[in-house]
Amino acid sequence: MKNNSRVISCVDYNWEDVEKKDYKTDTTNFKDISRFSLLGEDDRDYELNMQTRYFEIKPGGYSSLEFHRHPHSVVIIRGKGTVILNDRITDIGLHDVVFISPETVHQFQADKGEYLGFICIVDRYRDKPAIPDEATIDKYVGSDTAARKKIRL
Questions:
Q1: For the chain, which end, N or C, has fewer CB atoms within 10 Å of the first or last residue's CB respectively?
Q2: 9 vs 20: CA distance, rounded Å
Q3: CA-CA distances (angstroms) from residue 49 to 40, 45, 102, 121, 123?
Q4: How many structural domains comprise the chain?
Q5: Quick check: is 102 in a domain?
Q6: All residues at 6 or more sequence positions from 40 whose CB lies less than 8 Å from its CB, including other chains
Q7: How far separated are the first and last CA of the chain, in Å rounded?
């Protein structure tokens, strides 16, 4: 069996031989965010059952508001910001860990005047994230909550 073990070196939040990619191409409800697929998408990673990605949000930017069935874990490795998890708003910073349970409306925002960068680990085979409709937002976030007012679309 071929041994695919390796180290991917990083300098200034850029990984050796890892392309900086567009965050998404099928929606436009995000701002100033990019991603790096570190592990789990390459043919050499067939042994992994998860994907490890790095997302970076420029100051003032945000991820898409999402809702899906798969869980994921996030580790903040750069800067500060905010995460919305259903009706909760939580400040996040360096080395904080975020668990996003299935069916949680969520969004990351770089709203503290600096970059927000995080490692996100998800199942390799998972459902596609969906943009929650108004009824889903009302159900999980509420219609007149601080989180609802903070959401960026």
A1: N
A2: 14
A3: 7, 9, 18, 10, 6
A4: 1
A5: yes
A6: 48, 50, 51, 52, 53, 124
A7: 47
Is residue 3 in a domain?
no
Q: What is the CATH number of the domain that holds 22?
A: 2.60.120.10
- Domain hosting residue 70, numbered range: 16-150
List the structure tokens of 75: 């580790």
Quick: pLDDT tens for 6-63.
Answer: 999 999 999 999 999 888 766 778 999 999 999 999 888 989 999 999 999 999 999 9
- pLDDT (0 to 100) of residue 23: 85
Cβ within 8 Å of residue 143, ≥6 positions away:
none
For residue 63, what are the contacts with CB-CB under 8 A and spacing of at least 6?
23, 30, 33, 55, 57, 107, 108, 109
In angstroms, rounded to a whole number, what is the distance separating the alpha carbons of residues 49 and 40? Answer: 7
How many C-beta neighbours within 10 Å does residue 72 have? Answer: 21
Which helix (H) or strand (E) is 17 found in, with range? Answer: none
The residue length of the chain stands at: 153
Q: Indicate which residue of 84, 92, 105, 120 is catalytic.
A: 120
